[in-house]
């Protein structure tokens, strides 16, 4: 499980998703073919966008900075409960549904395209000036 807040400027979600896409592992191709799928929490709010394949998951949490549990305590608690399997039946069913939708193409909500972010970062040159 990788997660980042969409307002995190320390470890921004674009970078976390880009390294998730670039990670070399047996399920990389399956993860690459996933679609960002909106995850709706138990209270009906949209908690974020999920991409998941073969047990590897990336979540971009909405309205959250670097400290997701402080910014979104209820959403963070449900994420942990769902991902670890200790949540109730409804939590588990919602999580499994969004993971399945992500693997099958889901509905629009972001995700994918991490390789484009890596390309932009790789070609961007930064000049460091000593003072």
Question: What's the layout of helices and strands?
Answer:
Elements: E1 2-5, H1 13-22, H2 28-32, E2 37-40, E3 46-53, E4 56-61, H3 68-71, H4 73-84, H5 89-103, H6 114-123
Helix pairs in contact: 1-6, 4-5
Folded structure, characterized:
The protein starts with a strand and ends in an 8-residue tail after the last helix. It contains six helices and four strands; from the N terminus they run βααβββαααα. It has 131 residues and is of the alpha+beta class. The longest helix is centred in the last third of the chain and has 15 residues, at 89-103. The protein has one domain (2-123): Rossmann fold (3-Layer(aba) Sandwich). α4 (73-84) packs across α5.
Q: Which strand order spans the largest sheet, edge to edge or round the barrel?
A: 1-4-3-2
Which structural class fits the helix and strand makeup?
A: alpha+beta
Q: Output the radius of gyration.
A: 16 Å
Please name the CATH architecture.
Answer: 3-Layer(aba) Sandwich
Give the overall average pLDDT. 83
SSE arrangement, N to C: EHHEEEHHHH
The general outline is globular
Strand content: 15-25%
CATH fold title: Rossmann fold
Put simply, the count of helices is: 6
The number of domains: 1
Distance between the termini: 41 Å
How many extended strands?
A: 4
CATH class: Alpha Beta
Largest sheet features? 4 strands, mixed
Task: Give the % helix.
Answer: 40-55%
Q: Any low-confidence stretches, pLDDT <50, length ≥5?
A: 107-128
């Amino acid at each position: 499980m990788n997660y980042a807040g969409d307002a995190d400027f320390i470890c921004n979600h674009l970078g976390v998703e880009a390294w998730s896409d670039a990670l070399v592992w047996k399920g990389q191709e399956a993860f690459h073919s996933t679609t960002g799928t909106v995850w709706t929490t138990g209270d009906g709010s949209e908690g974020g966008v999920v991409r998941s394949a073969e047990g590897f998951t990336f979540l971009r949490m909405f309205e959250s900075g670097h400290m997701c549990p402080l910014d979104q305590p209820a959403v963070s608690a449900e994420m942990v409960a769902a991902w670890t399997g200790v949540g109730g039946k409804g939590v588990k069913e919602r999580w499994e549904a969004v993971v399945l939708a992500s693997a099958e193409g889901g509905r629009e909500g972001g995700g994918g395209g991490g390789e484009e972010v890596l390309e932009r970062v790789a070609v961007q040159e930064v000049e460091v000036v000593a003072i």
